[in-house]
Amino acid sequence: MSADKYLCGARRPKWQETSPLVASRLPCVLEEGHGEAHQDAMGQTWMVTTPELVFALGVLFASEELRRLLGGEGAL
Predict the structure, then answer these.
(1) What is the pLDDT of residue 7?
(2) Could you tell me the sign of the dihedral formed by the alpha carbons of 67, 70, 72, 76, in that order?
(3) How many domains would you assign to the chain?
(4) Residue ranges making up the domain that contains 42
(5) Tens digits of per-residue pLDDT, 16-73?
(6) What SS3 string covers the chain?
(7) 7 part of a folded domain
(8) What span, in angstroms and rounded, lies between the C-alpha atoms of 72 and 63?
(9) pTM above 0.70?
């Protein structure tokens, strides 16, 4: 990496933390503006999430849980 490049520095969202907790909060070491998943100095990766994705997944999981509780077919 040349001197004029900056690191991304993003940290894993708190809800995506893994153990050990200190290691899961290391910043992303990829160049600023990268397009792939973030990666820390230990090689752990995490995906870039948006509020829309988090909301959509919440709706999906809640609907699957309701389907399971009501005895519907095809639950995950």
Answers:
(1) 93
(2) positive
(3) 1
(4) 14-69
(5) 777 776 677 889 999 999 988 999 998 988 887 788 988 999 999 999 999 999 987 6
(6) CCCCCCECCCECCHHHCCCCCCHHHCECCCECCCCCCEECCCCCEECCCCHHHHHHHHHHHHHHHHHHHCCCCCCC
(7) no
(8) 11
(9) no
Q: Is the dihedral of CA 51, 34, 46, 11 positive or negative?
A: negative
Nearest of 9, 65, 62, 60 to residue 38 by alpha carbon: 9
> Each residue of 30-40: pLDDT tens digit?
999 998 899 99
With the C-alpha atoms ordered 34, 51, 9, 12, is the resulting torsion angle positive or negative? negative
Q: Is residue 4 in some structural domain?
A: no
6 within a domain of the structure (yes/no): no
One-letter amino acid for residue 51 of the chain = P
Residue 25 CB partners (closer than 8 Å, separation 6+): 11, 12, 17
